[in-house]
Every structure is written in C-alpha cells, then in structure tokens.
Automatic annotation (TrEMBL), chains A, B:
Its EC number is 4.2.1.1. Residues 1-16 have a biased composition (Low complexity). It is an enzyme of class 4 (lyase). The keyword Oxidoreductase does not apply. It holds the Pfam family CsoSCA_N. It catalyses: hydrogencarbonate + H(+) = CO2 + H2O. Its cofactor is Zn(2+). Belongs to the beta-class carbonic anhydrase family. CsoSCA subfamily. Residues 147-381 form the Carboxysome Shell Carbonic Anhydrase catalytic domain. Residues 41-133 form the Carboxysome Shell Carbonic Anhydrase N-terminal domain. This is Carboxysome shell carbonic anhydrase. Keywords: Bacterial microcompartment, Carbon dioxide fixation, Carboxysome, Lyase, Metal-binding, Zinc.
Amino acid sequence: MRGAALHAARRAAATGPRHRPPPRGWDAWSARTSEPAAGRHPLADRTVSQALHRRADEIEAAFGAIAPTLQELAPRQFAPEFAAHAAATLHARLQLDIPAAALVASWTAPLDLRALHAHCVLGTFCRLIERAFDRGLSHLVDGEPADALIRRWGFHAIDITPCADGRLSGVTDYILRVPPSIVAFRESYAGAMFDVAQSVRHWESVELQRWRTGTPNAAEAPTRFLKIGVYHFSSIAPRHEGCAAHGSDDVRAAGALLERLNQFDQAMRTLHGARCAVATLLIGVDTDTDAIRVHVPDATGRMDILRHADSAILYDATAHLPREHAKDAIRDAVAACAGVPADDAETEGMRWFCGYLLKNNIGQVEAVRDWHRGRYADAGHTERLIVVGDPVDDVQLRNLAFQAQMRTVEEGAADLDVGIRILHAHHAPHRLPVPILAHIRFDPRIPGAAVTAEQQARRLAAAILARHAALAARGGLSVAAVVRAADGSALTPIDLTASHGDASPEVHP
Amino acid sequence: MRGAALHAARRAAATGPRHRPPPRGWDAWSARTSEPAAGRHPLADRTVSQALHRRADEIEAAFGAIAPTLQELAPRQFAPEFAAHAAATLHARLQLDIPAAALVASWTAPLDLRALHAHCVLGTFCRLIERAFDRGLSHLVDGEPADALIRRWGFHAIDITPCADGRLSGVTDYILRVPPSIVAFRESYAGAMFDVAQSVRHWESVELQRWRTGTPNAAEAPTRFLKIGVYHFSSIAPRHEGCAAHGSDDVRAAGALLERLNQFDQAMRTLHGARCAVATLLIGVDTDTDAIRVHVPDATGRMDILRHADSAILYDATAHLPREHAKDAIRDAVAACAGVPADDAETEGMRWFCGYLLKNNIGQVEAVRDWHRGRYADAGHTERLIVVGDPVDDVQLRNLAFQAQMRTVEEGAADLDVGIRILHAHHAPHRLPVPILAHIRFDPRIPGAAVTAEQQARRLAAAILARHAALAARGGLSVAAVVRAADGSALTPIDLTASHGDASPEVHP
C-alpha cells in the first residue's frame, strides 16, 4: 500500500482539508503542539522528542560511566585503603552502593572486574527503574486523558506483544509513544510469538473487572480489547539484522505474527462468542529508523502482511504540507489501507487509532533523522543486559535490554538461548560477561505471594545458570534476581548465594 | 470435638428425630437408599459401595495381570515366532496393542522386560482412562442432580486440592463420593500446598462465566465458591505413614493447609472485596481406613485444626441407631463442631454439605471394614505410577497413582522428587522402573493449543529424565507423555523418541 499512501498524500495535498469535523479524540492530539518548535514535519511532536532524548542521554550516560570508572579503579586495586576508595568512587560516579568488603583485592586474589562490570550494569538498570522517569510525559496525554481517548476510539484495554529483541526495548515510549496508562499488558517473546491461551487469560482478567467493578469501563460498553503484535525488520540489512527468531525474514516474521493474532481472534470467538469483541493489530518496526508499518485492518477486521501504512513514507509525503493537510493525508492513507471510505463509521475507531500511532511515530522518525542522521549507527545488537521473568517497562531505550517473559527456563529456554547468543556475541570480544536479570512481580495483596515470587526468582536464576553452566563456569554469565510488589514500587534484590536446597534430586541411593 | 460428636450422637439417640423438616437437599440423599441392602450402618450406601468395589476389582485385575503375563512370556522370548506370539498374548490378556517389532528378542539383545513392565503399566492406565467408567454413578445424584443440590446448599463451584499422595488417589470417587459434575477443579500437590494465586484464577474463571453466561448460575445468586483442602494422616502409624511433605505430622499437615486456605480467603477479600464470597473447608483423611475429619467452619467461617467431626466416630456412634436418629446425630455433631444451634440459618448450607460428606464417607468406612477388615493391609505406598502435568480423574483408586500437578519440572521439582522417592522405594526391590506419565490437557477451541500441549508434554518428559538422569540411565525410570483435548476425550500418545531440538543450549562456542 505504499503506492496508496503516496497517492492519498498527494490527494490530500490537492484537495485540501476535509470538511467533516474531526472527532474530539483525533483533535486531542492534533491540538497538542499548536506552536511546534523549530523543525521540519508539521506533525512531529518535538517537545516529546526532546524529553525522550534527554531521558535517553541520561540512561546512556549512566551505563556509559561504568567501564571508564572500573578502568580507572583497576590499576589501583593493590593500593592501601583501595576498597573504601573504590566503594566511594562507585557511589559518587555510578550511584551504586557496593560494600567495601566486596571490593577488597590482593595480589593473590585480584578484583574480578568482569563480574564487577556485570554487577554494575545490573545495579544501574535497577537504579534507573527506581529513578522514576516521568513515563506518562504529560504532553502525550494532554487535551484529554489518553485512556479516555482510546475508549472513545473504541478500545478499553491494550495488550502489546513485541519481539524480545532489544532494538524494540523502547517500543511503547519511543516508537509508538503511547502512555503507560493505556497499556494493560506488555509481554515480549522471541519473534513476538505469544501464547494464545495467555492472551485469552489477559482478556478474561480485564473482562471480569469490567463486569464486577466497571473498570476501565462497564462490560456493556461497546468497546473492544485490542491485541497488538509488533514484529521488526531492518531496512539497511534485511537479510542479517531482521528478527533472529524468524531467520531475519520480514515476510516470515509478519506472517507468523499475523497467524498468531488470527488464532487469538478465532479462539476468542469460539470460547466467548462474537460478543467478546476483540480487535487485533499488526505493526512492523524498522529497527534502523524506528519507522513503523501499520497493517490497518479492513472493514472485516482482516489484515494483510503486504498491506500497510508506512510512517517513513508518510513522513516524506507530508513533511512539506500544512499541518491540516498532513493530517488529512495520513487519514486518507489509513482509509486507503483499510479499503474503506474516509467516512466509514464501522472502522472509524481503529482508523483513528492507527492514525494516532502513525502521527506519534512521525515524531520518532524525525528524532532519529535529527539525532542519528536518519539511521542508527548500530544496526545490530548492543543490548546491555537480558531481562527474563516478568516485564519491566520503567526504563526504556533502543538496545537497552533483550527482554523475554517466562515463568521458567524450562518453557522459555528457546528465548533465553536467543538472548544469550545475541549478547554473548557482542560481550565476549570485550571479555565481558552477559548480565541477566531475573525479575518477578507479585501481587502484595495475596498473602504468601512475596515468598512465592522470591522462590520463583531464585529458581529462574538457578535454571539459567544450570542451562548455561559451561558459559557461567568460565565467567561468561552474571545473573541477578529481584522481586517487586508492583509497578512503581521498590525492587527487592534476592541473595542468590544463600542456599535454598532443591537443586539436586538426591532421592535415590 | 470427638467428645462433642459422641455426645451429639447420644443426645440424638435420646431425643429422637428433630421436628424441623429437613431441607430437600438433605432429603435427597437421605431418601436414596430407602431399603438398604444387608449391612450394618443405616446410612451406608451399599449400592454405591458395591459399584465402587467392582470398579476397584476391575482396575486391580487390569494391573495385576501385567506381571504374570510378562513372567510367562520371559522364558519363551528366544523361541521362533515369539514376537508375534507375545503381541497376541499382550493383546488378549492386557488389551494392549504393542507392535511385534518392539517384541523381537535375540540372545544378544534380550527383551527389556523391566521397561516392558513400565510400558504395560502406563498403557493400562491410559486404557482404563479411556474405558469410561461410569463415574457419575447415578445413585450418587438421584433425588435431584447433585450440582443443583450443592447450589441449594449455597455453593456454585467446588475446587478441591488434595495431597499428591497416591493413597488419596480415590479421594473424590471413593472417600468423599462426590460426583464429578460438582468438582470444577481438582489439582493435587505434595502436602496439598496449592498456589493461592492459581486458586484465585480458578475463582476468576468461574466468576466470569457466571457474569457472561449465567453458568453454573448468575453472578447475582448468593452462592459461594468452595475451596476444599484435603490433608491426610495414618491412624496405624502416625509417625511414619502420614504425609511425607509434612514429616508425617498431622498437626503440621493440617496447620499448613489451614493456613493456605486462610491465605486464599484473605487474598480474595483483598482482591475482590467481601462480595467475592468464597468458602473454605479443611478435611483430613485417615489413609488406613478412609475415614475423614471434617473441620466444620464456625459461624464466622473460621476453622480449627483441633475441631472436627469424625466419620469413624460417627459411624460407631450411630451404627446401632434407626436411620432418622443417625441422621440427626450427624447433624447435631456438625452443629456442635461449628458451635452453632442446629437451626442456625447462616451456617446451614455449609453444615448440610459437611453432613453430606460425612454421610457419604460412612459408606466408605463401612466398605473398608467389610472388604479390608477395617484397615487397609498396605498402610504405606504401593502406587503403580506417577502422573504429572494436568489432573487425571477418570480412573481413581487408593494407591493407584501419585499425582502432582505441574506445568514444568522447574516449578514442580520438589513434588516430583517426593513421588519418585516414594515409588522408587517400592519398585526398586522388585527391580522395576518407576513409570511416569506426563499428561497435558488442552482446550481444542484454541487454535494451536494442541501443538503447544504436545511441546509442553515433551518438555515435561525431557525435564523429568534430565533431573533424574542417573536413575534413568540405569533403567530406573520409564517416562511416557500424552495430550488430551478435554476430559472424556481420547489420549494422544507423544512419541518421545522423535527429536525436537531445544535440548541443548549450544549457543556459544
């Protein structure tokens, strides 16, 4: 549909603004930056881009300080009072509290700086989680609250499954720029291959709340549960830097994910009838530019891997247009992609939402053009750590973390292995171990849940080390575990050196 | 409360039948055996006992035929045409279809009769599952359907967690004698230590159905979700033949389970408010006699590990009474245990249900007295196999299967180890391997669920063999895997010899 998008843009340019008054939801974001700062695209929200850029700089700086600090400390490790000095330095430079006792070195037992590096990476990640970035970015939701807005567009909850690939590590904050309040679930899997039954359970938990407590809205309200799948590809090196789980083949990646989304839709209809009302949306991300392809559903809700509206193309086609014309061009491109007239009432909500994502992403496309000369210098992987277990979204940035959700390594082994293979490839040349964080969330309202979460985190960490024992034995892995009562609350580190039995069966002589 | 029960029985004997007309639910079962067959206790339902006895005989005979058949075949294995003969014999005697090619022996490669034994045990178990016993036993639910009856008693779903111990392998059919239709969930764990969050999910799935489809009844109906925990103890050898997971200490077993039930109750109140309406019930089973202790909740729903109504005591106290007097004695014992008057309206439903279980169990107490001289000859473990994964209830019998529910060995390792330790102890002296069945159920309405289930079954089997590799290497374990679309449907065996990758990480040189 690239042709259609361009055609629509031209048509918009030719015919001027539509006469049909835009709905308030659409207006909300169009009214956002009434006076855009200096820049090129009339729809790119530079205030948001600048805030995201500052946040990215802060995150990069935090991790970037680790190696120079350790490099500076290394040669002094045999000096008197080194441990206290090192602890003070790490506190001052990295804001990490590492007990001096752990920093004592002697010529027979020098500091394990590789392990310390991984420890600092994991510690920095945890510190940034608790740093409480303003992820809501108020300008993302001005006009009216975004959650009210998405309900107006016909959705009451959004469940996003991106690929575990670290280049999608900023997918909701940077690429899609959707506020956390509208994302009910975000779970990542290699190749975005989510479990259909698990998504059904997500729907069920939301639905029960709607029935029982009327939140986020009443069960009778004619809104839908939206499941979004996000695959990715590389425009620079499509055969090499695409999705590893799908052999770096974007047709395969999109096709497999679309099939999974269709399975979810089918399962929901069979299990809960036509009234269950779910919507699905397939999105592709070019990890070189952060541009997106939105596979706008047609009037029957069907999507096609070859039919999409592309933010990069729309950016170029509309950058020169007056603001209102640019908006119309996007609307027309989305309608053309859906194969419906621009005033089709049935598909209106989904089309507005697709337009909202494309417009948001135009800001990111411009940010990458401005700050990375249009394409990221690192087309491939430079993730700093792997996160397994429950999702962490508090700190987001492209190539920050390979993140794969799993309850156990037994089930998540394939995803874990992909992550370790990827990180090992770019850590090993620097003789650095791969840092892995096992992160388990629990509901503090359930008695005993904290203990269960700790056991699970401990088990997960042990299983990672057991599966990759050879790599761990030569210092190629560094695993930490944390539990957390809920999003936004403090992390509790788990002491993995403490013995908790259960490691060996030992049940028969 | 043993004293109270006796006292109540005596009081009932002294004062005759109550004048208050019993509710219809209670009548339903009291009317059941209007003309009891020859026997001792007026409330023991001998029709049911005899049907259960026949079923037990059939199950025992099926497993009992395995060893003699193999013993007979063993010396002939080098005779000409043996394979075809053996296949025909196994088909005729055990109703198992084993291809002749798998039964070819030579003097350099004799039959692995140990493995064949395990194979036959697993095959027989699967055959019996598909044999479709009439588990509903129509006389269990005559008068009116039991599910309507439990709703009248104030419950809309029952979730039972017994211990994984094989001596509770007949808990719902034999010991509690509740029809399958009223058991929404039955999951076993070592020491009955269920996961509270998982029980909350059970409640949620039932609740959503009530809201959306009005099944089993409408969400507005003032009925409750009943969670039952079943621990066990041994009256013959309390220190040795009790629950292994709780150090054969019945106070610990009951206390830990009561705490878990209270945690569930607390979690539900916090998560879903007082309106969530769950009830909990603690039951103890004497595995030597199948008699039960019912820890009847008091007016506030609270239970006490020392306060219970005992079926064995009630049996003796009421065996000589006229039928109506015996019923009153049980009612009084239950009311005394709850600490409420016999006409207390608030606790009526739960008390009727406790009375129903005690009355049912009196039939089992008598059956054990009749057919096992009051106590089982095998106080300890003689389980024939271990079942892991999803629950199997189609074929039940004391000491048939150690059954522990788990998604992965990573999470269920402790339960698996207990099971293997127990079965190894009584299989090893006979030089027989421990048969383990990995059983995964799936919802056929979810596209792709069959494939996911097969992967899970395969993973589970592989993880069992990996964890107990040394035992497996010397032929001490035999693992099979099956998947099943739903209860009552056919089992699909999984060929574990086929390679499916994923076993080794192999991700770094």
